[in-house]
Amino acid sequence: MHLRCALLTLTFLLASVLPAHSATSLMLDWYPNPNHATLNAAKTQGFFADQGLEVDLQVPADPNDPLKLVAAGKVDFAVSYQPTVLQARAEGLPVVAVGALVQHPLSCVLYRKDQGITSPADFKGKRIGYSVEPLYRVLFETVAGHAGLTPEDYETVRVGFNLTQPLLSGKIAGSAGAFRNYEAVQAELEGFDVGVFAFEEYGVPDFYELVLIANAKTVSEAPEKVAGLINALKQGTEWTLEHPKRSREAFFASYPDSANELNRRAFEATLPFFKGSPAQTRQRWEALETFMRDKGLLNNPVDLDTLVWQPE
């Protein structure tokens, strides 16, 4: 009896000292891919658990779902895109950017080197495919304008997310919105020599390709959860950069279907873009917000003071 009482007392004391694991949902932006390696590292290496978080990494049924579900309070956190988050806030959705997952644009303008293209000016008289309307059409127009072209100098056509095959088959001369760590690698694996024009080098502000968002209510009512998540992601990022091979193998162990040559090369191509995450600055948000308003991509100004969360 005394032993049982002692064990119960010890259990109570441990429960009061050790942090209880808080169930936390985090929805990815797309199916699992190397862009999510640092989140997987935070989970598999116990960094989330060290912060008292039991994180469930969820895959969306539709890539439009994550932001909507965070805004509705149905999931705690989600991976989203910086321009999309600005548009959501301009429309009044209660989402807050709590950290950056990928520090720079992965999306770019992809082209075939065997088509005589050496600068964006060479797109004159050609057809360009783009993914999302109007964002990537406007981003391409900015790149082309930086090279002295006007929209009358080329034709744009929306191809959705089928960005590789129209380029490789010669139906389009460039793909705006292709990822330099994925579609470019895919084209190379198919035997094509391709190049990229980085948006941030041709008049577009350097933006975060992927960010983590939370509902404003979560940020105000559970700040310790937000801080814990970001602390764990910071550790996951540092561990991935210090042990890239181990991080890659941990990712493939978590998602065996992704263990192929495309994702192996994509993982290597993505690594440099993790450096500095999850830090984010108000200045970079302000630069993109100003750009998007100037280009007609935002209908209303965004209160950046309440959009951009910073650790204390």
Automatic annotation (TrEMBL):
Residues 33-246 form the SsuA/THI5-like domain. One of its GO terms (biological process) is thiamine biosynthetic process. The keyword Signal applies. Residues 1-22 form the signal peptide. InterPro entries: NMT1/THI5 (IPR027939), SsuA/THI5 (IPR015168). It comes from the Bacteria. Keywords: Signal. PANTHER family: 4-AMINO-5-HYDROXYMETHYL-2-METHYLPYRIMIDINE PHOSPHATE SYNTHASE THI11-RELATED, THIAMINE BIOSYNTHESIS PROTEIN HI_0357-RELATED. It holds the Pfam family NMT1. This is NMT1/THI5 like domain protein.
